[in-house]
Amino acid sequence: MPSPDIPAAPPSDAALADYFAYLRGNFAAVADRLGGTARDFSIAGRPVRVHLAGSELLHLARPLSHLASIRDDSPSGELPLEIFAWESTASGLLPEPPSWDLRNLLPRGEIAGLSSAEFAVNFTSDHCLLAMFQRSTRRAIYWLPRAADLPYWETAAPFRTIFHWWGTTFGGQLVHAAAVGKCGRGVLLVGRGGSGKSTTALLAVEAGLDYVGDDYVLLTSDPQPTAHSLYHSAKMHTAFLRATVPHWQSRVAAEIGPERKSLFFLHESRPDQVIRQLSLQAILHPRVTTHSAASLQPARASAALLAAAPSTMYQLPDARQATLSFLADLTRRLPAHSLLLGKDLLSGPRQIAALLDAERTYRAA
User: Fold this and answer.
1) Residue of 99, 82, 80, 89 lying closest to 33 (CA atoms)
2) What percent of the chain has pLDDT over 70?
3) Predicted confidence band at 71 (pLDDT cuts at 50, 70, 90)?
4) Which strands form 119-124's sheet, in the order they lie side by side?
5) What pLDDT score was predicted for residue 365?
6) pLDDT tens for residues 158-174?
7) Tens of pLDDT along 262-289?
8) Would you say residue 109 has pLDDT above 90?
9) Residue 117: closest CA among 48, 31, 17
10) For residue 204, what are the CA distances in angstroms to 98, 199, 243, 274, 358?
């Protein structure tokens, strides 16, 4: 028995494989007792299947529902991502803890010293939410003891860590950003929380632009930078909502988080504007100002990188050098602008539309 003062060694691949298989068996037992559901999606043109045991976590499929697909429409030979998600309270079938322990946790739920080419592991200790991913099989575990302890952010953006790991298997990158546009072309809105990117994305929908995401999107870079939708959920401060777009109050699905933000599922009210992907033409960093109307100012690539990278790297596990390299390449390839937001809230989306129209005219010429 290791001393509590001496962190245990990280688990071996064999120990991880054994526990992964054991948890798959626990999922099967819960599904056998309570019933199981499978939902199929297409994300970034790739197949994803979410297996849900029981009914306690069924609501996690809602933010992905705009990406629903038919099982048989998967590209030939494409190995699907399969997520096995369940909780234990309803069934009473609580899995045994792993033979390795979780005392060596880092701030984002990583296990210190764990370096495995085959498995990724994350444990959110405040909620006892365990995520595991086996890279060779594209299979993932998503488990917690009680659905009541599910982190509030998972209601809007479930399986975020798993999608992050999965994206790296095909050169994709999950990014803390928003993406909106028109006619298949769009902009990436980057910045830390409170910079105005989510508000700008929602007001862009109000102005008639298309929407890919307001908080997390999946990026690919080849053959050209593209933002792919993960969630059709969107959030806005409730007080701001009531003051600016009060007619949206009837669309609020819930209020979540300590800030009591209003949560929407946009595809349910604006299905024609929620789309699967946009070809990126520029990176915009929104900034709140006291100006009367919004304006655009050219920005350096380094400023765009500084706006995009820190919040992504802070919020995702195992998001360090590879993430920084991906975003550095992206900011070198796309023009960057500061979007100076004004009191006329719809002037921001108008600036975005004008930028995309100008870019389209330039390329046509």
Assistant:
1) 89
2) 93
3) low
4) 36-43, 46-53, 81-87, 139-144, 129-134, 119-124
5) 44
6) 999 999 999 999 999 99
7) 999 999 999 999 999 999 999 999 998 8
8) no
9) 17
10) 47, 8, 17, 11, 17
Token code pair at residue 35: 């019933």
Distances in whole angstroms, Cα of residue 232 to Cα of each of 120, 131, 205, 340: 26, 22, 12, 26
> Whole-angstrom Cα distance, residue 130 to residue 141?
7
Q: How far apart are CA 281 and CA 296, in angstroms?
A: 14
Place of tokens 């595991």: 132
Q: Cβ atoms within 10 A of the Cβ of 207, count? A: 17
Tell the burial category of 28 from Cβ atoms under 10 Å away from its Cβ (0-12, 13-18, 19+).
Answer: middle
Q: Which residues on adjacent β-strands are paired with residue 68?
A: 41
| Phi, psi angle pair for 274, to nearest 5° | -95, 115
| Token output for 284 | 């915009």
Is residue 8 very low, low, confident or very high in pLDDT (cuts 50, 70, 90)? low
Local structure of residue 64 (DSSP, 8 states): G
For residue 275, the number of C-alpha atoms closer than 13 Å in the C-beta half-sphere is 20
Task: Give me the chain's average pLDDT, please.
Answer: 90
Token pair listed for 222 = 């080849």
